[in-house]
Amino acid sequence: MPDRLTRFFASRTGIILAGAAIGVLAPLLQRLGNPANMGICVACFERDIAGALGLHRAAAVQYIRPEIIGFVLGAMLAAHAFGEFRARAGSAPIVRFVLGIFAMVGALAFLGCPWRATLRLAGGDLNAILGLVGLTAGIAVGVEFLKSGYNLGRAQKTYTAVGWILPLLMVGFLLLLLGKPTFSPGGPIFFSTSGPGSMHAPLLLALGVGLFVGMLAQRTRFCTMGAIRDLILMRETHLLSGLAALLAAAFFANLLLGQFRLGFSPQPVAHSSHLWNFLGMALSGLAFTLAGGCPGRQLFLSGEGDGDAAIFVMGMIVGAGFAHNFALAGSPDAVVDGILRTGGLTPYGMGAVILGLAACLLIGLTMREKIGKGA
Amino acid sequence: MTTVDARGLSCPQPVLLARKAIDAGQFPIQVLVESVTSRENVRRMAEKAGCRVAVAEVGAEFRLTLSK
Question: Is the terminal CB of chain B with fewer CB neighbours within 10 Å at N or C?
Answer without folding.
Answer: N
